[in-house]
Amino acid sequence: MQIRSLAVFCGSKSGNDPLFEEQARELGHLLAAKHIRLIYGGGNKGIMGAVANAVLEKKGIVTGIIPKALTEWEHHHEGVTELIIVDTMHARKLLLYEKCDAAIILPGGFGTLDELFEMLTWNQLSIHDKKIFILNTAGFYDHLIAHAKRMQAENFLYDRIEDKIVILSAVAQMAAYL
To answer: Number of folded domains in the chain?
Structure first.
């Protein structure tokens, strides 16, 4: 399936390693260059803001989806191509999934993990079959990947991890899928 829109799930904070934002900007530039619409959480702070700003600076298309309650917390981005303000987090996640052809996970916190696991669960239950990527910047997700492999080894998963998630260590690897 051709990817025309990519959901990016990531932190509304920047984290401690400058590489997190650097790779987010690199991803944003790649999306714009490949004419892929960014679908994301609608904020203008942290890694979330970095990826959106990078797409916009290269004249790409950005759709942000944010719950009304988070417009102050995550400081909604007023410069995006399209900003959709929804009532709840559930509505946000549903729209993010509906509007994307695939998703990539960058470093982030609990919300990022929530989005990853909901997508994986929906994928496992055949609610969708969208490709899921993890950008494992500086080994950020090493422990999570190891735990997922343990769940597989202990026979708690229905599919092999490799069949559900593509692990990337650099943004350049994503180009092969776009």
So the answer is: 1
Burial letters 35-71, b for 16+ CB under 10 A, else e: ebbbbbbbbbbbbbbbbbbbbbeeebbbbbbbbeebe
Note the residue count of the chain.
178
Q: What is the DSSP string of 25-80?
A: HHHHHHHHHTTPEEEE--B-SHHHHHHHHHHHHTT--EEEEEEGGGTTTTTB-TTS
- Give the model's pLDDT for residue 71: 81
Q: What is the pTM of this model?
A: 0.94
pLDDT above 90 for 128: no
Q: In terms of residue numbers, what domain contains 121?
A: 5-177
Nearest 5°: the CA angle 86, 3, 78 is: 35
Residue 27 sits at the vertex; the CA angle it makes with 44 and 88, to the nearest 5 degrees, is: 40
Mean pLDDT of the chain: 94
Contact 7, 96 (CB under 8 A): yes
CATH number at 132 reads 3.40.50.450
